[in-house]
Every structure is written in C-alpha cells, then in structure tokens.
Amino acid sequence: MTARRILMAEAVLVGGALLALMVKEFPGAVREVRIWRMAGFHVGSRHPR
Fold this sequence. Notes:
By secondary structure, the chain is an all-alpha fold. The chain contains one helix and no strands. The protein has one helix at 2-39. The model has no long low-confidence stretch (mean pLDDT 87).
C-alpha cells in the first residue's frame, strides 16, 4: 500500500510540473503560431503543383 501511495504522489508531482510548464509556455506558443500565420506557413498546407 505504501508503494502505491508513493507512486501516486510522484505522478501528481510530475503532472503538476508539466501543467505548470504548459501554462508558463502557452503565451509563447500562441505568439509563435501568429508569427507562422503572418509568414504564410500553414500547418498541413501544400503548394499547388
């Protein structure tokens, strides 16, 4: 039972750290997407032949 509690605590800590990192980096990612759109790089788009 103790090992399971330790694993759950570690999972919660790692999940919280990942969530905090995503929240911190989200504004930069939005800015990058805007730059790509202004530059004309669209995700999944191909040039016509």
